[in-house]
Amino acid sequence: MDDLERLAEEIREADTVVALTGAGISAPSGVPTFRGDDGVWDRFEEGQFTYGRFQRDPAGFWTDRLELYETMFGDGYEPNAAHETLAELACDGHLDAIATQNTDGLHAQAFETVTDSDVDDKDDSSADLLELHGNAHRVRCVDCGRRQSNEPILERVREGELPPRCACGGVYKPDVVLFGERLSAATLQRSRQLARESDVFLAIGSSLVVEPAASLPRQAARTGGSLAIVNLEATPCDGDATAVFRDDVTEALPRLRDAVTARE
Ligand code: APR
To answer: Residue 236's domain is classified under what CATH number?
Structure first.
């Protein structure tokens, strides 16, 4: 039995299956990754997007943020086969939660696509979706906490409103976790609980170098879960994995789904 067949059997027999995803799962959709060839951090200075910079210089931050947003998301993009495969596994009851580091909203869109298209023969997918680093398509007022879609706010930034402000006078911040900013305690606690409880933990399309997400795979492996990594490049967690698939996500995940459903 090869690694894929063994993983498929573990997933069929598991009570709890959790996936952690990173930028690599959205790369086939055209969203650039942060590291690796032509990564975002080769084109932009990470230090321009820290929470400290936002607090010190919100106008300059938003000028750079608009350029970063248009580079990452400007061309428009759709979920790819990897997002849809995870949504299908969730609808079939083989995936209980996705914790994503991505802020592109593509997992949520894939769930909508999959549940709309097969609503008659798919369970209601009760999978948890945790956006560990927030969602780039929303902004939040740092004073009153009001959230709203970022499109009209980006338009106001383009027209020179720097920084964009809420009706209450507070500055809007992208609804993402910036470097130097803490994840919400609830999100962090939930993601660690999922790692601990998982019988199978899939780390997909992530370099696994940014904390606290990078510790989740090891946490899963340490508490007896089977860790499988799908990533084009080596990661620091490869040594803890039961199986490593040095494959493209759009190849590996549909093959895994087929292997899971073939023996049902
Ligand atoms: N199939 C499989 N793996 C891929 C693919 C693909 N088609 N394309 C890229 N990859 C792999 C790359 O080899 C790389 O190791 O995906 C990984 C993406 O790594 P990063 O760009 O570092 O993205 P990520 O791990 O999500 O970064 C974590 O860093 O900058 C912060 O907040 C940002 O959430 C992000 C965090």
So the answer is: 3.40.50.1220
Please state at what angle helix 81-91 crosses helix 106-117, rounded to 10 degrees: 60
> What type of residue is 167?
A
Spatial separation of the C-alpha atoms in residues 203 and 21, rounded to whole Å: 6
Give the end-to-end CA distance of the chain in Å, rounded to a whole number: 17
Q: Could you tell me if 40 and 104 lie in one domain?
A: no
**Cβ(198) to ligand 1 under 6 A?**
no
Instruction: Give residue 229 CA to ligand 1 midpoint distance, Å.
Output: 12
Indicate if ligand 1 lies below 6 Å from the C-beta of 101. yes
Regarding whether 190 and 156 lie in a shared domain, the answer is no
Q: 209 C-alpha vs ligand 1 centroid, how far in Å?
A: 9
134 in ligand 1 pocket by Cβ < 6 Å? no
- Residue range 135-151, pLDDT digits in tens: 999 999 999 999 999 99
How many residues in the chain? Answer: 264
| pTM, rounded to two decimals | 0.95
User: How many Cα atoms are found within 13 Å in the side-chain-facing hemisphere of 222?
Assistant: 11
In sequence order, the β-bridge partners of residue 129 are: 98
Instruction: Quote the DSSP letter at residue 50.
Output: B
12's tokens: 């069929």
